[in-house]
Amino acid sequence: MAGMILQTDLTRAQLLGEALQNARGKKKFVLGEPLIWPELLPFLPTRMAELHKWYAVQSKASKLEMFPARIKDEHFWRGADDVYIEFASLYDLYHQDALHKSLVSVWCM
After folding, report:
1. 82 within a domain of the structure (yes/no)
2. pTM above 0.85, yes or no
């Protein structure tokens, strides 16, 4: 293990994952601002572009940090309910970063 660590030439922070938070080129999440760099927006797939447009309108209009998604009884067989998804989770989705379980649950439906 020590030999592999020496061969990778990574710092202690990189090995522990601490450096990932400040990765070069990663846009920081700010509510109401685009989730990705504006020059990348034209290259998004159709549904991702639609979701980004919806986020832009909702995050500026409501100033809320999360939104509800309605789930039906047949999704989890526990009755109809709402799952709350933070806008920051959408940011993680666009950057293919760690996802919150509520976002993954909605995606699976």
Report:
1. yes
2. no
Q: Closest by alpha carbon to 28, among 97, 85, 104, 84?
A: 97
Question: Looking at the DSSP assignment, which residues form a beta bridge with residue 83?
Answer: 69
Averaged pLDDT score across all residues of the chain: 78
pLDDT interval class at 19 (50, 70, 90): very low
Cα 91 to Cα 82: distance, rounded to the nearest angstrom: 20
Q: Is residue 67 part of a domain?
A: yes
For residue 53 the two structure tokens come to 């447009």
Q: Is residue 23 part of a domain?
A: no
Nearest by Cα to 51 from 101, 89, 98, 99? 89
Integer Cα distance of 80 and 60 in angstroms: 28
